[in-house]
Amino acid sequence: MLQNDKKIDFTNNIKVGKGMTIIKLLFPNNKISCEGLFKNITEIKKIVFVNFNICNNAKEMFSNCSSLEKLNLKSFDTSEITDMNGMFSGCSNLKTLDISSSFDISKSENVKSMFCNCDQLNDVVKKSFGRTFFKCDDCDASKPFLIEYTSKCVENCGDSYYLLEEENICVSNCTETDYNYAIEEEKKCVKDCSETDYKYTIEEEKKCVKDCDETKYIKQDNKCIKKEPEESKDKSKEEEKDNSKEESKDKSKEESKDKSNDNEKEESKDKSNDNEKEESKDKSNDNEKEESKDKSNNNEKEESKDKSNNNEKEESKDKSNNNEKEESKDKSNNNEKESSINDDSSDNATFIKFNLLLIFIYLFI
Question: Pick from 131, 52, 134, 46: which is nearest to 87 by CA?
């Protein structure tokens, strides 16, 4: 019971009024027992915890909070709690339970009657915990079967439920259990039809039957395979024909499309080849023109060079001839000069000789 004691200190004493939704508490840092913390507080409708991680025992923590409609436990750390027996028992109006992955019951050694008489909780929360978390006590011999997700023990499952013998639970749908085949005649769930007197399986309906109804099914490997109605067969044949025609049309279209694509490819290829040939031809002509031009230029250069060489030769020859002529002329002039000088010298000698002769004659006379 929530009260002032050595375990818990309060910033404000609990003030419980009709429809009150907020409780302010200051809890110690060390782990404590939260057994019966909110037990029998019948007026409160909503509790929200923020970073709540102090409990190691949650036995009957919210027991008989009969007006409680919503409980937010998303930040309630249960990883160290070892006892959750009757934790929410008697919360008959509890419809919404917000939990997160931190709501861990793996260390709890006792989860008996955890949701006893919490029949209004939504199915998602119910299935998160399991079918047996909602019973209050073990069902006795007079009422041995528990109706799933409730606290009710019954003598038999009746027409509305199927018996899950291994757990003594009445379930509404076998397919939501590990025993997912139903025997309608016995109203029970089994794992394998072949291990019972109802050895044939109707897979579509998840049922076990003693024999296949030959008007509806065909026997095949302990299975009842549903027959197709004649109308359905005719429709199926018509559909097959239509499908065949459509496929044929589609194939024809595809073939036509393929041919068209092939023709386009061929045309494109031919155009490409023609273009390549034209380009090659143009390149060849351009190359020939360039080569012809180069040859012409080279010939012109050669001719110009030859002319230049010839001119140089002619000029050299002319210069040589002129030089020879000049040299010959000079030699001739020099020879003439030499001859003239020699003639003058000879005349002078003759003159001297004559003068000497005259002198000699004069002396002797």
Answer: 134
